[in-house]
Prior knowledge:
There is one protein chain. The protein is mainly α. It has one domain. The protein has helices at residues 2-7, 17-24, 28-43, 46-49. The two termini are 18 Å apart.
Amino acid sequence: MEATLHAAGFPVDLLTDEQRLVLGELTAEELTLLLDVKSRLDAVGPEVQAHGEIAGGALF
């Protein structure tokens, strides 16, 4: 799971143990949805990245 998230650009190494636990408990469908949302956010680039610190950076 962590390798998949890392490959998709998630800063897994910056997440807390609790956040990693939550991500590790995602179903395959939830992971697919999360990766899809991330790819859409990445597609709009700087417009969304500017808000990364405000949102905690988990998705950005």
